[in-house]
Structures are given as C-alpha cells and as structure tokens.
Write a structure and sequence with these properties.
Length: 194
C-alpha cells in the first residue's frame, strides 16, 4: 500500500470535530454502539486515542499513552479534540514518517500502514458517535469505503479472538451504506436497529 493516508485522516478528524461540536451535555451519559462506552467515555477514547496517534507520528511510544483522557469538562470536548488533532497534523507532517517503522497496539508497521489503521478506527468511532447522537450530520462515504477496505484487509473475521477489540462480523442490513457495512464488519449494531 503506497497511499498517503494523511489527507484521509485529516478529513476524518475534521468530520469528528464537526460531530463533537453537536454534542449536548444531556447526551453525554447516553449509550453508544460500543456497549461498554457511554458518549462521554467514547469522547474520552476518541480524544485519548488521537493523542496516541500524535505520539506515534512523532516517533514516540504510542503504547505508553493511555487511549482515554480525564478531566475534560462537559463543554470542553470540542476544544480537547481540536488540540490533539492539531498535534497529529504536526507529528505526521514529515513525509519520512510514512515509511518509518512505528509501534502500535497491533504490532510494528510502516507509518502509512499504521495511520491507515487509525483512519479505520477514527471512522468507526465517528459512526459510533453519530449513532449515539441520532445521526445529526451527513458522513463522508469515501472515508467509510477506505476504512472498510482496511478493515477487510487487517481484520478477517476468522482471525478475531479475545485479544481483538472487535466482535465477529455481522450481516449488514439490506441497503446499508458504507458506514453501516463497516460497523457490521466490526461487529457493531446500530442503536436504532437494535
């Protein structure tokens, strides 16, 4: 794979930022398709995971970064996320980072492969948050198609086990868009279809 995933990651991060700006305080305790996360915990994970991506891009040990953040006030999620996504942009700016080997939770990989995996994670959590919020914004279908292609490549259904943070693939609903197909491949269920 020789794709430069940085433009796709930037689009995914902008989409996340726009979605986070729609979150109302009364929604923070609401459920998400990630059964163990409410909206607040999902925002904490999205922000902390993004900080991890920044550290990986800067050549640091992303595994040493907790993929959650604490202490963000209810009205501070948009600012917290904007801060870490700016860190990602800076840390991945050098083209050499795309070919450098980096350590990520799933092993060692060239930067472009690792960042592609993080595009998949970001797009997946975007769907999670969108579902939890009642789909307040239209989502970019090209990002979902890219994330789905990555998911098919790196997460074959038969290789999932206890150490993989995704359930077995489920059938996508009839007429499913790319986000719903991605969610189904990763074992997620829509809150509205549950």
């Amino acid at each position: 794979m020789n794709t430069d995933p940085r433009p796709l990651y930037a689009r995914a991060a902008e989409q996340i930022a726009a979605l986070i700006r729609t979150v109302r305080p009364e929604q923070l305790a609401g459920p998400t398709p990630c059964g163990e996360f409410d909206v607040r915990t999902l925002l904490s994970h999205m922000t902390g995971g993004t900080r991890r991506i920044a550290v990986v891009g800067a050549g640091g040990d992303g595994l040493a970064v907790r993929p959650f953040v604490d202490g963000v006030p209810d009205d501070g999620w948009a600012a917290a996320y904007d801060e870490v996504r700016a860190e990602v942009e800076r840390s991945w700016a050098d083209d050499a980072r795309l070919d450098a080997l980096v350590h990520v939770p799933w092993g060692e990989a060239p930067g472009r492969i690792a960042l592609s995996g993080y595009v998949m994670e970001a797009v997946t959590h975007t769907w999670d948050l969108s579902e939890a919020l009642g789909r307040p914004l239209g989502l970019d279908p090209e990002l979902a198609e890219f994330a789905l292609a990555i998911a098919h490549r790196v997460l074959p259904d038969e290789q999932r086990g206890d150490d993989v943070p995704f359930d077995s693939a489920a059938p996508a609903p009839e007429g499913a868009d790319a986000y719903e197909r991605l969610a189904a491949w990763l074992g997620r269920r829509s809150l509205s279809r549950a």
